[in-house]
Amino acid sequence: MRALYKFIYFKLLGWKINGSFSKEVKKCIVAVAPHTSWHDFYIGLMIRSITKTKINYVGKKELFKFPFGWYFRWTGGAPIDRTPGQNKVQAIASIFKEKEEFRLTLAPEGTRNLVTELRTGFYYIAKEANVPITLVAFDFGKKEVKIGTPFYPTDNIKADFAYIHKFYEGVVGKIPEKSFGYSV
């Protein structure tokens, strides 16, 4: 599959990869933005295969029902109940303690729609689990996936989010007008 993904990604789609996942980091949050389309899913599957990096994800529980639930589980997904009133940060952070290797992909926007502010769940999961965050940008404008250097969130959320915003600055999603930070 890796050879096929490389052919599709590099030759047919004409994309490139800027950066790499740290092989020493076995546990982290992989924060991918902008998340504007279902196309992000297959780009992500190709990237993890091409880079030989085991990466998991969570998705709304409705995705894991018949007829496609088996596929999402097979590709490393786990259902999450997004019903209000649950401590999802603690529940997800506890998974890191149970596993020897666990890289969890999350979309900091929390939706495929345009947002003006990133959500903070991914940040607090990383803090609670004491794991770094690896920022990843799917830039459809440049046909590039940019992989950042892992960093541990500090106690200065304002400074950390300034760094995160800077990383995603100018990145264009599949649907540009839904990209984080999009301006007319």
From TrEMBL:
Domain Phospholipid/glycerol acyltransferase: from-to ranges: 29-141
UniProt xrefs under Pfam families: Acyltransferase (PF01553)
Keyword Transferase: yes
Metabolic or biological pathway: Lipid metabolism
Alphabetical keyword list: Acyltransferase, Transferase
Keyword Ribonucleoprotein: no
Domain of life: Bacteria
InterPro entries to which the protein is assigned, alphabetical: Plipid/glycerol_acylTrfase
GO MF term list: 1-acylglycerol-3-phosphate O-acyltransferase activity
GO BP term, pick one: phosphatidic acid biosynthetic process
Protein name: 1-acyl-sn-glycerol-3-phosphate acyltransferase
